[in-house]
Amino acid sequence: MESAPPRLRHPEKAHRPDNPVQVRKPDWIRVKAPVSAEYAETRKIVRDRGLATVCEEAACPNIGECWKKKHATMMILGSVCTRACSFCNVATGMPDKLDPHEPEKVADAAALMGLAHIVITSVDRDDLPDGGAEHFAKVIRAIRARCPGTTIEVLTPDFLRKEGALEVVVEARPDVFNHNLETVPRLYPTIRPGARYFHSLRLLQRVKEIDPTIFTKSGLMVGLGEGRLEIMQVMDDMRSAEIDFLTIGQYLQPTPKHAAVERFVTPDEFKEYATLAGAKGFLLVASSPLTRSSYHADRDFAALRAARAAKLAAAQ
Question: Residue-wise over 157-168: b if at least 16 C-beta within 10 A, else e?
């Protein structure tokens, strides 16, 4: 009989920022330290161009595996965020000035890495009139010009109260538009206080309304105190918004100051979530302890295209 997942002694303290208690990671969540020559080469390409990656800034556990394959998720619009979500390790404070040469630098890095698929994300830039939308569009256009065969996935902020910003990014025609809901609505006040659940949901729905050919994608973290029924409701909300691709991964506490892990969800539970989501009609589901938004994004994009083709063929 499988043992219960590790839990905090005091679950009621799970979201207190001053809670120093951290649960020991189970074997299924541990990864090897990055030591490969390819990792070092990827790091050099990024460093030489003064680029930021969410792989480093968010302390992603998959960085060793991904960078060995020269897969790096570029983080544009600076490395300082205007929000302070309690799950995120990205620095918060006064944002950096925009680098006007960043689009070309990102395109250059993509070319040197030989990327067939690239993921572009950013910090939140509530200080900018368009939230950084035009900068996203410039990066997309620069990659198209330098690497015409590379498919592009964007993982954007919510552009809250930035009228017209979403349309600017969609008109640049990324292949995948990703925006993470992150958690269930009940936990937004403590986990994602600067965001609004239904605004994020509507953002993704609007992408499909503007351009139905763009794949939409969203992700959830588990282990923050959410319930099974709450996750299932979010799945239903996502399908109502016609979201194509769902990712589900284990939340890991970056530092003792961040929201604590309430529990480690077992691999079997992740498989169950994948089965449930598949039955609800998502084109693709990635659900495992180490799943992250851009983990295996190139492979998943190929699977998305194949799933859409199969669906269209079945409808004929």
Answer: bbbbebeebbeb
Whether 177 and 167 have beta carbons less than 8 Å apart is answered as no
DSSP 164: T
For residue 64, the enclosing domain spans: 31-315
E strands, 214-270, where?
Answer: 215-222, 245-250
The CATH number assigned to the domain holding 136 equals 3.20.20.70
Q: How many CB atoms lie within 10 A of CB 4?
A: 8
In single-letter form, the type of residue at position 180 comes to N
Res. 303 pLDDT band, cuts 50 70 90 = very high
How high is the pLDDT of residue 59? 60
Cross-strand partners of 153: 119, 176
Q: How far apart are CA 260 and CA 242, in angstroms?
A: 32
pLDDT tens digit sequence for 249-261: 999 998 899 999 9
CA distance 155 to 180: 8
pLDDT at 68 over 80: no
Please give the Cα distance from 223 to 266 (Å, whole number).
10
Does some domain include residue 75? yes
* Cα(182)–Cα(153) distance, integer angstroms: 18
